[in-house]
Amino acid sequence: MIEQKKVFAIIPARGGSRRLKRKNIYPIWGKPMLYWAIRACQHSQYIDGIFVSTEDTEIKNVAREYGAQVIHRPTKLADHYTFKQDVIVQAMETILEKPDLVISLQANSPQICAYDLDAALEKIVQHDRNELFTVNPQLIQNAAFRVMKYDYVFQRSISTRSGVYVTNYVDVHEIEDVAYLEANHQPCDHNNRPDNLTQTYSFD
Q: Is residue 90 within 8 Å of 10, Cβ to Cβ?
């Protein structure tokens, strides 16, 4: 449905975190949290390259162990005050190939499903959006993932041709979030795509 489109996924995963220490590789469902984002990308029908951006040696090793390529993130882009989009820009400037579409997805949404990534990719192409970002069921923006046409990675503002995709993922920031997910949820079954996915909206 997105014929001939090259898609790269970038997973920012710095070593530091203020609330849950080593959050991006904190264990959940028996695996480092980063594993679930990589796994979702691997099960996507459309994603051609999976890259983890990090300055941290242990996270680099985890990323490679589970099949992602690693982009070294400069220390100056690894503090709490760095905008995520600056990390995505640095990653795309490092990668030699130019994809058609770029997905930025966070490691601390371990419920991430490949079929949501694929549905969002289908929608951005079908509706000819420049970018698409996730919101929760109350239509409040969350940080689960963002899909962009390549040129719009470098834009400093939200595009006027944007869309949103509704997800109901828990963002993990504290140990209580891990406990809640492990008690109440299971990892995504990527092979069981629902017939009716969450509605996607677009606007000019």
A: no
pLDDT score of 14 more than 50: yes
Asked whether residue 204 carries a pLDDT value surpassing 50, the answer given is: no
Whether the predicted pLDDT of 40 surpasses 90: yes
194 pLDDT higher than 80: no
> Degrees (nearest 5) of the Cα angle 98, 99, 101?
140
What is the pLDDT of the chain when averaged over all its residues? 92
Give the number of residues written for the chain.
Answer: 204
User: Does the pLDDT value for residue 197 go beyond 90?
Assistant: no
